[in-house]
Amino acid sequence: MKTTKAWYQKWWAWVLIILGALLIIGIINTPGDTTNTQATATKKVAKKSTATKESATATTYKVGETATIDNVQVTVTNVKTATTLNSNDPKTGNQYYTVTVSLKNIGKDKVSYNPFDFEIKAAGNQTSLDEFNMDENNQLDSGDLTAGGSVSGTMTGQAKADGTVELIYNPSYFSDRHLTFKLQ
């Protein structure tokens, strides 16, 4: 006679229980949550209306202007263009852009930064600033900024030589919120 195990004795039941528990913990522990549900609901409504205002008034900043997102002040301080880099030529129709940025944490919490938070956009193509420039000794690395901390560094990438070229800063992979700086 064949006996079947109870549902709680099967391995897949425990996998589902663990995944469900992790999902619930992840939902409960989202950043900025408070124990007061009314305050949380008010914050969410305020964030949603702020995001709507930001997307409705999408601003493009110029070199030298400071913009703020997620308690980080971002300034593009310098842009250099070049037709060769480390004795290498860019792709046909492109040129190299070396961008110097400054980041400052104006919040109370630690903020992470990474050169991959930045992309260069030209002619509908958005690419990473992942070229290594031997002439620049202040490459932007990844790290954390404590409250009041600041960092500056350079990043190099290639994009079309003509037309509008923009630097996009997106501090969160999971969000569409970003800053745009016009480089050319």
From TrEMBL:
Q: Does the keyword Signal apply?
A: yes
Q: Which UniProt keywords apply?
A: Membrane, Signal, Transmembrane, Transmembrane helix
InterPro entries cross-referenced by the UniProt entry: DUF4352 (IPR029051), Immunoprotect_excell_Ig-like (IPR029050)
Q: What is the lineage of its organism?
A: Bacteria, Bacillati, Bacillota, Bacilli, Lactobacillales
**Could you tell me which species this protein originates from?**
Lactiplantibacillus paraplantarum
Transmembrane stretches, start-end: 12-28
Provide an example Pfam family for this protein: DUF4352
Annotated DUF4352 domain residues: 61-177
* Protein name (record): DUF4352 domain-containing protein
